[in-house]
């Protein structure tokens, strides 16, 4: 593999031996840090911890649904597990882990030494971390039977009037509201930081037309956060006013509107899917070209498609509300908008396939997860187009078909690309390679478990199994499907344990990575692994979209077109 050691060492500054420190000094250093790399790692580690918790909650629900008339979990506990799983996965796993990768990678990729606002960066992390802790404190401090703590049981969407004081007494819903409010403040702060960093801190020569696609997609994602998280934050404040100050925003008996809450929530809730999927696209844009040994196909079209997704995604929220009873005109608008978002998304899929086509593909674990993502995201998009049709949605919108669809997006696309990102950038973050052998066990186990679970989940949905139910009768024809689905979930849990083992084992015993183990071309691979505190002792200067590749392989420069 060709390298240019002098170039890498010049930018990286070489590895330096850190003086020995006590455990207390190390903790103090991490708690008080404003280094974007350490903050990014804290985002990622905290999100992984919450992922384990949310995964356990999902397994308990699947145990309950594995057979008819099961009593493994009480109805009240099931509703709380249901609420906590959804809330945790969206607000304290998905968004933090993606912001974590963005925090770590964006300054390195644009040749900057840190984020634009380091202290705001630290503040944003601690907001989301303590928001997650606050959510789970409801188990201790939320009032329930005999004063015992309870978790909120209003679903992750918290539809009115379930959240009104008469239907949600005690403080569990307040803990949910405050935790989501903190998460929103964190997300807005992180989004401001990303946009400011990209606009004002790019290194010389890093024109917008030379930015890595990852940076482009994180910028679009951050702009979406500005627009979508703010209404959710406003809705949380209105909900607190309803519960404690006597207002009636969502109280239908006093002139308020329960549907108003749905609009506020889904103005956030569906663009939120794109807030989560755009970073997954970003990872694919960096990983697929490197392991295909080709530049990304159609860079300008990929940028345009990303911006197009950002704009169109703001017009699709009410397809979650086809069954509410909107007017025919409203339904038609949201049907057309939902179908329109498939156009820029389809452009991306074709460009990824064109990048792979004719390439010298290296089937690393990261590439295997990326290929799995391509197929599964295509299936998720097709079922999404089906549900975009209002008459079809009326039949299946409140069934397990929809549960299968959005898990195909959240797990089959986003989580698969997150796994790919771990295998790809772990060497940069730790200086060690993750085990490819263990990684391939992880990939195949998770792939098999995923398809057993979520492929088959469409079937009971078509057969009429409603969402959000605690149990069901044996004569409905759903039993065998639910039993197999729960078995698939168990396989995914085993695969996740393999992944966590690989993370820990590789940290201590993994092969030393070096600055550029993949022979890649973006600037983060010019720094040491892990990078020093200020990334680059000399500010890099770039002259193309593949600055590191042009230095290492000048003989190939003519084969690359701006």
Descriptive keywords:
single chain; 562 residues; mainly alpha; Cytochrome C Oxidase, Chain A; 17 helices
Q: Would you report the number of β strands?
A: 0
Residue share in helix: 55-70%
**CATH class label:** Mainly Alpha
Unreliable residue runs: 1-17, 144-148
> If classified by CATH, what would the architecture be?
Up-down Bundle
**Overall residue-averaged pLDDT value:** 91
CATH topology: Cytochrome C Oxidase, Chain A
Task: Summarize the structure in words.
66% of the residues lie in helices and 0% in strands. The protein has one domain (37-559): Up-down Bundle (Cytochrome C Oxidase, Chain A), CATH 1.20.210.10. The radius of gyration is 24 Å and the shape is globular. It is an all-alpha fold. The chain is built from 17 helices and no strands. Helix 3 runs antiparallel to helix 16 (479-509), helix 4 runs antiparallel to helix 5 (118-141) and helix 7 (213-244) packs parallel to helix 9 (299-312). The two termini are 24 Å apart. It has helices spanning 5-12, 23-31, 36-65, 75-109, 118-141, 172-200, 213-244, 258-292, 299-312, 328-340, 342-356, 365-388, 390-396, 400-430, 436-462, 479-509, 547-552.
How are the secondary structure elements laid out?
Layout: H1 5-12, H2 23-31, H3 36-65, H4 75-109, H5 118-141, H6 172-200, H7 213-244, H8 258-292, H9 299-312, H10 328-340, H11 342-356, H12 365-388, H13 390-396, H14 400-430, H15 436-462, H16 479-509, H17 547-552
Helix pairs in contact: 3-4, 3-5, 3-16, 4-5, 4-6, 4-8, 5-6, 6-7, 7-8, 7-9, 8-11, 8-12, 8-14, 9-11, 11-12, 12-14, 12-15, 14-15, 15-16
